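Field notebook, page 300. I keep forgetting to write these up properly, so this time I am using the form the group agreed on. The chain and the ligand, iron/sulfur cluster, are recorded exactly as supplied. Prediction of the bound pose follows.
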Amino acid sequence: MYPLNYIEPVFRPPSEWKSLILQVTNGCSWNQCSFCSMYTDDVKKFKPKHIDSIEQEIVKVAQSGIPTSRVFLADGDAMMLPFKRLKQILALINLHLPQVTRVSSYCLPRNLKNKTVEQLAELNALGLKLMYVGCESGDDEVLSLINKGETYDSSVIALNKIKQSGMKSSVMILNGIGGPEFSHQHALNSARLMNETQPDFLSTLVVSFPFGEARFAENFIKNDCQPFRQLGQLELFKEMEILLTTLELDKTIFRSDHASNYLVLKGVLGKDKETLLLKVKQAQNMPGTIELRQEWERGL
Ligand SMILES: C[S@@+](CC[C@H](N)C(=O)[O-])C[C@H]1O[C@@H](n2cnc3c(N)ncnc32)[C@H](O)[C@@H]1O
Ligand code: SF4
């Protein structure tokens, strides 16, 4: 366990479970996505951390002797920090933890608006290798309804910048986020976004509301849409079938194994597309013949 004083709660991508979680900011600078309650506690009000505190924490980790090869910059969108500050942080990691081989972070498309490809390439050379981008959907109507503050186009621009800089991207898409009314177009346009940008990793999560869905559903009513409801299992599988059918990926590691999913899917797309589709169709057409995560096993 790293000897750091975190402002809890702290979130990280599942694949960063072994990494040093370095809190270089607290909370999320946007914090307005209507499905997300991750940083809504008062203590999680957005604030960048002072560079001296960041250095003290890195030194503490170095002195602890805990082997550290990967670092995840937290919290929700550490990439909102200016280029110069990110460079300073990476330099400190390289100085005190020279064995680190990969630094990663969550990243909103707008975090990259004021950063050039050359600057991102410089950060990449300093060890920043992977951006986790919560696109959530490629459908502009859905993106507006969920208040993501991003569009299909802004997502394409950011994902292309990441690729051009030599960094890798890991995209999150939320299954069920448009409810029944937008399910079809959400799946189609999310696949279109992925096809256009060819991310290195793609994971799908099922949207869940541990604190209730009232806040999320409000925007659907305000915009004269059908009232939102969460998709049932079969509807989620149908949405996944449309997504997978439409995806034309060359070499993307696909994971739908987050604890929020009923049906666990893993593979490389395109190579495993047909196998994954068979599994999704089996889940729809032959219920009971395929293992599903039970409700009590699911979580965020
Ligand atoms: C901690 S958030 C940080 C992501 C980053 N700020 C971004 O927007 O790119 C990580 C991801 O958790 C997922 N998430 C957040 N709230 C969720 C919910 N209610 N249900 C399912 N997934 C959720 C979203 O995919 C989100 O992108
Ligand atoms: S999904 Fe990301 S950008 Fe949206 S509020 Fe949550 S942490 Fe912030």
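OBSERVATIONS:
- Residues 28, 30-31, 33, 36, 38-39, 76-77, 108, 134 surround iron/sulfur cluster (ligand 2) (CB under 6 Å).
- The first strand starts at residue 20 and ends at 23.
FOLLOW-UP: compare against the apo run.
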